[in-house]
Structure formats: C-alpha cells, structure tokens
Amino acid sequence: MSASHVAAAGIPFYWRIEQDPVHLYAYRIGPGGERQYELVDDGSEVIELPEPFAIKLPIAEIRP
C-alpha cells in the first residue's frame, strides 16, 4: 500500500524502513490534517521521535 493511500485513510504516522542499507524514514500527517505526509526524521544510526510516543531507537536493533 502506498504512503498516499495510508495518508488518505487518515493514519497519522507512517514509517518506511529500507533494508539495504538500513535506513528509517518517519513521517506524520502535516499540520492542519491535510492528509499528506511530511518527513519528521530520518536516519541510519538513531531515530529520536517525540510522537506518537517518545522513542529513541538505534536503527541497528531493527535489522532483520
């Protein structure tokens, strides 16, 4: 399912994880709820996000 379909459904947060090389992209629906995602953070080492709950995630820990 594409990110645009997920955003259109109103799901407020969306993560995309690339595996080679490992990289995480964290998105949220933009301010005003226009049902389009904006990039909140991305990284290959550590992601630290305040929403939807505070999390600091070393990317190496999510490797398959």
From TrEMBL:
The keyword Hydrolase applies. Keywords: Endonuclease, Hydrolase, Nuclease. One of its GO terms (molecular function) is endonuclease activity. It comes from the Bacteria. The keyword Nuclease applies. This is Uma2 family endonuclease. It comes from Micromonospora tulbaghiae.
